[in-house]
Amino acid sequence: METNEKELPKIDLPEDWVIGTDINKDLLSLYAHYPVRLKCEMFVMCLAGEVEAMVNLNEIQVRPNDVITLMPGTIFQINEVRGDLKIYFLGFSSGFIERSGQSRSMLDAIFLTLGRPVIPLKSEGALMMEKYLQMLIGMYEQFNEKIRQEIAPNLYADVHTGISIIYKSRHYDKISLSKSELICRSFMQLVTQHYNQTRNVSWYAQKLGITHAHLCAVVKQITGKTCIDVISSMVIMDAKSQLKSTNLTIQAISDSLNFANISFFGKYFKRYVGISPLEYRKL
């Protein structure tokens, strides 16, 4: 995995798809002090050890036999790693995803995993998943990059279809979401995609086809947070990430988050963090 520092600090992959098991405690500890944003898409399976993390403002617990789906744009931060980790990962690069477009299988996976990136498997299912991933590792090591590129589109579709089937087969699909829950999930997805373009709650309400007041009431009811809280949390997480993991100027970071000027960005950041962007960078 690599960090692209020419734009927003996002983790990406060097090839169309990459698979392996070389995620360990030392590697995860690199992301323990500040949030980072995924440019790629990652599927992770934990077979040993435990991880506590934040994914798009939500705390998650990863335990043995858990599968984690992290969509492009996901912001995450590692809080704690316990035990000896054994983790498989499969990822698709941003370049491949952009060329492929959002397929129906990917859209299904996005909807199903939104707000619940972790799903536990029974031991039998985990064993089958491990064998499948081991087979893919063998293919990855056996074939050259050209053949791996040819494999990528079908693998991409198959993985998303499989993830969707796993989610639908669990109890999640037996619990009907209320209209308010659906609105809240749609709002959270829009914020994840557009927080660096607009912080205007009315814009999100218009996109969802509801009034500003109704959106605020629903989000407060479901999450306990205001719409502004949700949006600002994403903005601040991204700002912290850029301040700590890039050499971009404060002005460039302000521009990337669509602030009118650096002064407004500085006041906004201090309001939520308690210190200025420069002071945070020096910590």
Automatic annotation (TrEMBL):
Gene3D superfamilies given in the database record: Homeodomain-like
Pfam families (alphabetical): HTH_18 (PF12833)
HTH araC/xylS-type domain residues: 185-283
UniProt cross-references to InterPro entries, sorted A to Z: Homeodomain-like_sf (IPR009057), HTH-like (IPR037923), HTH_AraC (IPR018060)
Keyword entries, A-Z: DNA-binding, Transcription, Transcription regulation
PANTHER family the UniProt entry points to: ARAC-FAMILY TRANSCRIPTIONAL REGULATOR, TRANSCRIPTIONAL REGULATORY PROTEIN
Name of the protein in its database record: Helix-turn-helix transcriptional regulator
Organism: Bacteroides gallinaceum
Lineage of the organism: Bacteria, Pseudomonadati, Bacteroidota, Bacteroidia, Bacteroidales
